[in-house]
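Format is sequence with structure; example below:
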Amino acid sequence: MRRAATRARGDAGRLRILLVEDSADYAHLVALALDGMDVRHAASLTAARRLLEGPGPRPDVVLADLHLPDGEGRTVVAGLVAAAGAAPVVGLSGSTDPALVAGAVRAGAAGFVP
């Protein structure tokens, strides 16, 4: 299984990440933290779905803010899970509201990073 995941990665085995975040400053900080990985950015659920459903390489993982201009919590996760194929969707939020976390997991999030 590990070998198949490595083969699916981008150039030079770099992990492909789709970061869905409406704050340009926060997206920049996350991209800096993920230095060396192939990070693509979308500022809304709609833009992320366009990237996921369009041509080009699929991400290995989707990191998604749960508070976007065009979706919140479960809506964001469900929309991304539907479009992401096999890539896990991980929720990101400054909120640690148990209902938000539980809703994201019920909608298919593989995890949550506060």
The chain has five helices and seven strands. Residues 96 and 114 are 6 Å apart (CA to CA). Residues 2-113 form a domain with the Rossmann fold fold (CATH 3.40.50.2300).
